[in-house]
Amino acid sequence: MKSIKILLYALTPIFVFAFSTYFTISIILKGQETTICPDIRGKTVEEARRLVQSEGLSFTVLRYERRNDVPYNHVTIQKPDANISTRKGRIVYVIVSEGPELIKAPGLIGQSLEDAQGMLEAKKLTLDKIITIPHAKAGKVIAQIPVEGTEILEQSKVILIVGSEQKAYFLFPDNKNMNLGDITEEMDAKKIKYKINYVRGDQAMRSGFDISVPPKTIFSSADELTINVY
Question: In sequence order, what DSSP letters do the residues of 137-203 get, joined into one string?
């Protein structure tokens, strides 16, 4: 019996200490407020910070990382996770997207259309539109949008302005006092395309001619004229 009393005396301080420690921790834990950590994934850094701070939490960016699927300055990962209970004052750590990688638009001016398309494919760019305008460099790229060296995203669209064959325009003269030889000689000198259509087979009976373009009419060098001889 005496030994039991001695043991109780020895254990009493331990029990008192354990109880007081438990009681103190319980009070501290009960005194700490908790909140639900908001879901800030996909939010901008500024918006995420406001949401976190409105719940009594702190906000810290751990690092930025390159992400092709997430826009620049948007949260990709958060710790603690969203929608869990956490104590107020806790720090929410986030990783933020730097956005997709930028590339420089290649120089395409002076290239053939085929070569320019190959260069765009190699850079993972999309040919959006081809605009052709008459130019001395027919078949060549004479301008591009965006211009060479502009920083753009992969898969961005590029517009090419390509030179096409220049057309000359002529005013057909009044051929009232001109014979067939005069007409064909002038057309040959100006490199105007034409063909002669003999209406009658008997050469001796041919007395005149007419032309598919009336006198004093403007026409393009790409047009082919027809001379009907009858």
Answer: SBTBEEEEESPTT-EEETT-EEEEEEEEPPPPEEE----TT--HHHHHHHHHHTT--EEEEES-S-G
Q: Distance between CA atoms of 172 and 222, rounded to whole angstroms?
A: 14
Query: Are 152 and 120 within one domain?
Result: yes
Q: Does residue 186 surpass a pLDDT of 90?
A: no
Structural domain range at position 225: 169-229
Q: Say if CB 57 and CB 37 are below 8 A apart.
A: yes
Least confident among 13-17, 49-53, 92-96: 13-17
Check whether residue 92 and residue 110 sit in a common domain: no
Q: Is residue 2 part of a domain?
A: no
Q: What is the mean pLDDT of residues 117-145?
A: 94
Co-location of 78 and 130 in the same domain: no
**Number of structural domains, the chain?**
3
Sheet holding 126-134, edge to edge: 126-134, 157-164, 141-145
